[in-house]
Specification:
Blueprint (H helix, E strand, L loop, with lengths): L7 E2 L9 E25 L3 E7 L3 E12 L7 E7 L2 E2 L3 E3 L9 E4 L3 E7 L7 E9 L11 E12 L5 E11 L1 E2 L13 E6 L10 E9 L8 E4 L2 E2 L22 E2 L8 E2 L3 E7 L8 E6 L18 E13 L10 E5 L10 E9 L8 E8 L2 E9 L5 E9 L3 E9 L14 E8 L5 E5 L3 E2 L9 H14 L4 H16 L11 E11 L5 E10 L2 E11 L3 E11 L2 E9 L14 E8 L1
Antiparallel strand pairs: 1-27, 2-11, 2-12, 3-10, 4-9, 4-11, 5-6, 5-7, 5-10, 8-9, 12-22, 13-22, 14-21, 15-20, 15-22, 16-17, 16-21, 18-19, 23-24, 24-27, 25-26, 25-28, 28-29, 30-32, 31-32, 32-35, 33-34, 33-36, 36-37
Helix pairs in contact: 1-2
């Protein structure tokens, strides 16, 4: 039996140096047009951008903003005013970011999104963006890379379109730009799931948006393995004319057009009908190893590049009506699956079919038994993303999430309304700690003997005979000090020792980010932070302390403040008396 407390909450977007993968923000099939446009390059605030939205009933709209933070350690805010309406002020927290609508990656590159469905209108739309730049005490750079508006405009007389818009913030980077990380991130691949309901496809348009691209540094874009764009003339002499530069600080030029200059911001369109397949994918490439030396050199690719948006729009002249097609996806992080600890279950309800704007029921089952049902509101954007809490129980379980179990919504496919996930819930961590005997660290530095000092001063005495008496008295005094005749200090001197410490996790789940405190005669001498200790594992370390010779009490405490939830909290301390030689 499972006791269950329902708690539905938004999915957090946590900071990641390598970035946040591109995932669906909107999808569906309807008659009309998908509008995606923007600009205009890195500039200080206030930052203004205009959009010209085509005619048609607006079903949804999202505003995207790119902001430069300067570093992931600086914090600030961004706040746009859209069509005269001031939107929410989003905190830009860098490495501490957890806002679901703020994607921060790399060294402080932000991609922020707003739902402006109720504010967008046909024709001219305006946004003015402010950031914390210029505020007293502010460190955030706050310049804006660009603004993009995406909108769905429905028109019953227009052709049918099937689309999927993905948004994220991936940091493609070389080794020299990864800070303390030694890794590289040369490419990211995204898959599109749209167009299955169309009987025919008469046009296919791919839209992409980049931040931080630099003119003259090659980068590439592939659609189903086909290289897109045309080689720029300014790279025609590089690598036999094979080098491409899609993100080159000029918008709308990748297919040979003139475009317009846009510092560190790029938006491009590509016609890809000839390359369509049943399943379609796009690959963003930071560069290519064109000289065959086994790596992407500094002139072969971008130092760092952030793909932040990709959209595939398929157009058909088909006159058939399209029904909705609801299907769920469910995920849970392995570290969330610990006995008796609420696990965060993330889920997405997708609708790549006809528009569905209705309340639907979601059912959650564990091992075949229904433990939760709750309603969600599907919107025209075709994506509902959230999470709920499940009090996990130790053992192997089959999780199942289904949508519309009452079969109330007419759909094109009812066979994909449920998804399953096998999970293994482990026992809680169980930390224990023990100490070994102290080991004295021998002093390897050469000791200056009193006799050597005496001989040195005698030598000095012989050379400078006119000051013989004062120097002789000084020599005698120094000998007395170093030989212990003036004052006995050796007894109070401390020696260095290594204390062996063994930390064990007897549980199954990993213990993360906990401290180990060592005490000498009840006084704290050092604190060790352990990032992670896997279940059924131990680690050993030698902690250096200084102590006087004699009897002392050593004690060690692991997770002293009980930040880690454990199955047994009674074995977190160890104490012993030791004789320090």
């Amino acid at each position: 039996m499972f006791s269950f407390l329902l708690l539905i909450f938004p999915v957090e977007a946590r900071y990641s140096y390598d970035g946040i993968p591109l995932t669906p923000d909107a999808q569906g099939t309807f008659r009309g047009e998908i509008y995606i446009d923007g600009g205009h390059g890195l500039s200080f605030t206030p930052y203004a951008q205009k959009f010209d939205v085509p005619e048609g009933a607006l079903r949804w709209a999202r505003l995207y903003i790119g902001v430069w933070g300067g570093t992931e350690n600086y914090e600030g805010w961004v706040q746009p005013e859209f069509n005269g309406q001031r939107l929410e002020k989003f905190q830009l927290a860098g490495a501490n970011d957890e806002n679901e609508d703020v994607y921060c990656a790399g060294h402080g590159v932000y991609w922020v999104s707003y739902d402006v469905s109720k504010l967008t209108k046909n024709g001219e739309n305006n946004v003015e963006i402010l950031t914390s730049s210029g505020e007293p005490g502010n460190k955030l750079d706050g310049r804006v890379y660009g603004a993009v508006l995406a909108a769905a405009c429905e028109d019953s007389k227009a052709p049918m379109v099937s689309y999927q818009l993905l948004s994220g913030n991936v940091n493609l980077h070389g080794k020299g730009w990864s800070g303390t990380l030694a890794n590289v991130n040369d490419r990211t691949d995204v898959n599109f799931s749209c167009g299955q309901a169309l009987n025919s496809k008469d046009a296919a348009k791919l839209s992409v948006v980049y931040l931080t691209g630099t003119r003259g540094l090659p980068n590439y874009l592939e659609f189903n393995g086909e290289m897109l764009g045309v080689p720029p003339e300014y790279l025609s002499e590089s690598y036999g004319g094979k080098a491409m530069d899609i993100a080159n600080e000029v918008c709308f030029d990748a297919c040979g057009g003139e475009g317009f200059s846009s510092s560190y911001f790029d938006i491009e369109y590509f016609e890809v009908l000839d390359y369509l397949q049943a399943d379609n994918s796009v690959s963003f490439l930071r560069g290519l190893d064109l000289d065959g030396d086994g790596e992407i050199g500094i002139q072969e690719g971008e130092d760092y590049l952030h793909p932040v948006l990709a959209a595939l729009v398929l157009t058909s002249k088909s006159t058939s009506s399209i029904l909705p097609d609801l299907y769920p996806e469910i995920t849970v992080q392995e570290q969330e699956l610990v006995d008796e600890i609420p696990a965060e279950i993330s889920f997405t309800i997708n609708n790549p079919g006809g528009i569905c704007e209705e309340n639907i029921t979601v059912s959650f089952r564990v091992d075949g038994s229904e433990v939760l049902t709750f309603p969600v509101r599907m919107e025209a954007s075709g994506v509902y993303r959230s999470a709920f809490s499940w009090p996990a129980v130790k053992g192997e379980h089959l999780l199942e999430l289904s949508v519309d179990p009452e079969d109330r919504i007419k759909e094109s496919d009812k066979e994909n309304n449920a998804c399953t996930l096998n999970v293994s819930v482990r026992s809680k961590p169980d930390l224990s700690v023990s100490l070994g005997e102290p080991v004295k660290i021998e002093d390897r530095e050469e000791t200056v003997s009193a006799s050597v000092i005496f001989l040195s001063f005698l030598s000095l005495f012989r050379v400078r005979r006119k000051k013989s008496l004062p120097l002789l008295l000084l020599a005698v005094l120094m000998i007395a000090v170093f030989s212990g005749c003036v004052e006995e200090t050796h007894a109070a001197e401390k020696a260095a020792y290594l204390i062996p410490v063994k930390i064990t996790n007897n549980g199954e789940a990993s213990a993360r980010d906990f401290d180990v405190n060592l005490y000498l005669d009840r006084k704290s001498v050092t604190v060790l932070n352990i990032p992670e200790l896997a279940g059924q594992n131990s680690i050993e370390d030698n902690i250096r302390v200084e102590a006087q010779k004699g009897e002392h009490t050593l004690s060690v405490k692991v997770d002293e403040h009980n930040n880690t939830i454990e199955s047994n909290e009674d074995n977190n301390e160890f104490e012993k008396s030791c004789y320090f030689t």
